[in-house]
Amino acid sequence: MVRKKWCRRRVALAVALWLCNQPAVFAYDQLYVFGDSLSDTGNNGRYTYDSSKHLIYDEILAARINSALQPSDDGGLNYAAGRAVAVVQLNPQDNTASQVSTYLEQVQGRADGDGLYIHWIGGNDLAVAALNPMTAANVAAYSASAAAEQVDALIRAGAGTVIVPTVPNIGLTPTIMELVIQSALTPIQGAAVQAAYASLNATSTLDAASRQQAIHQALTEAAQLGSNSAVVQAAIAQAMISAYDNLLVQTGQLTELYNSTEDRQLAQNGGNIVRVDVNGLFNEVVADPARYGFANTAGISCPVGVSSSVCQSTMPGFDASKVFLFADDFHPSPQGHALIADYLQAVLNGPSQVVALNQATMAMSRDTRATLDSRFQQLRFQDNPQGTFGVFGGYAGQQYDYSGNINAGDGNATTHNLTIGVDYQLTDDWLVGALLSGSHDDQQPSSRYDYTARGYLVSAFSALKIQENGWMNADVHFASMDYDNINRSMVLGPAERTERGSTDGQQIGMRLTAGWDFPLLPNLTTGPLAQFAWDYSNVSGYSEESDSSTAMRFGDQTYHSQIGALGWRMDASLGIINPYAQISYQHQFGDDVYRANGGLKSTQTRFSVDTATQDANWVDVTVGANVPLTDSVAAFATVSQTGGLSSGEQFMYNLGVSAKF
Fold it and tell me: Active-site residue among 36, 37, 58, 658?
């Protein structure tokens, strides 16, 4: 017991040191885990070598959400146990049916809605099924359905987000080779397995083909112990190679049956399910091991016959010559666990990154309105008699920062907007007009997500003078946006991968602004203003281009913005330059979160993510000037800065010219 507690203290220290160098995933309050030895952190063991020094994948993920993960036997929230299966019939002592039931009993049937859950089971079920070919399909399908029902029980109890990884193909584990050797060379199986691993570990597997060749060679080496006759050795080797290849096909089919059955039932039951394709990821690793930091995907690090739960790198026979995918004949190495954690985080991050697409349409409307406001400013303080036509054009841009409450990371954006417009003075007090603007933005919401946005906006506007000192402006608009070169990148071990896509979006909006100017001096006025702006934006869902294990599809996004503002202005007429300044307090009455949903293209389920609550109040300060150049031509320029936004500051600027006829 003392040894066990000391090991866990080492693990806790490793978690703390590792956490200092990693960003958080989301604001989940706890991680709850149900599963087998892949997820066990101490109930029945810790299944990777040097387990007191290395984190299991779920411990890594827990650290990234600023949570600690302890075994349930020690009062923690990890119920996973080595040797567990999905159904009681296959293992009455260790199974996820009992794990889920125990948890729900402890919480009186009310699951933590703010928690993140992992339910990963099936490897041991498939191992049992593979040993009984006549009933294998039924066992696999029954276990998969049971696993899906357990996930549904968590969701019906209130669990918010449940990660359900696919089961990796057990045919890729070294244990399949061992089973073939043990069956063919029973009297000398120990020595034969040793000979096979000696051959297997000595090589590097560069891809799937070289991996298969290495295993065939290992079986050939083992066969040499079965007879002194070269002819008999060749026959034994050929029989084992044939048996291995057939078993590999069968286990692949069983794995596909299990995963597709569970996937289909998960989709039918519904819920916020993060389906991650670890099986697909492992196939990609086998196809190109070096990219992910592995030299060998067929051999093992631990001494032959030693479980990774007790394996230490100081043991005689431990192979430290290269980085292996497997620690023992069934469990990943520490590097394999780290890769799984990176993969889960990459999928979890997807929707939270995509919510930033709505920023582009709102940025375009802000830029266009900035130019229009400069034009309104000119019209209030220049002679514009009935029947006057006006034209104006300007450039507006922004530099603004993203912060972690917008999406999964900090970033920035630079916008560029060109606007041209015309207006007509219907009466001495009433003007109407229209404008067209085009925008080109470079958006980098985080270091792992960026895109280019190009679009146009059309607007109709009106300005009304009220008595001598009052005024009212109104505008409505429609905007269309194309999102190109959407790049969502991720780190998978030492590898970096980028998924690409494109989509489009629209926005409609209106704004009403009113104010009153009190004369202070012949050339100086001041007064209050009030404004309300309503905008509705929609970004169409899209699918990323590749068919990899990380390629995702995302649903439509909508966002409603309703901003009210109260402020105060000061205007001066100095002849050659007419400066003004304005400060306003702004409040968001609309949506206070960004929401997006998505799922892997290779699965049928999807999940949604809400960002943290956005800022509801901020201050905007604007200074500008109208500069008459001739009797009919004038220039304008403004700059503005927001303050009090935890989501990042916005700096805006615009300049342009106008003429009247």
Answer: 37
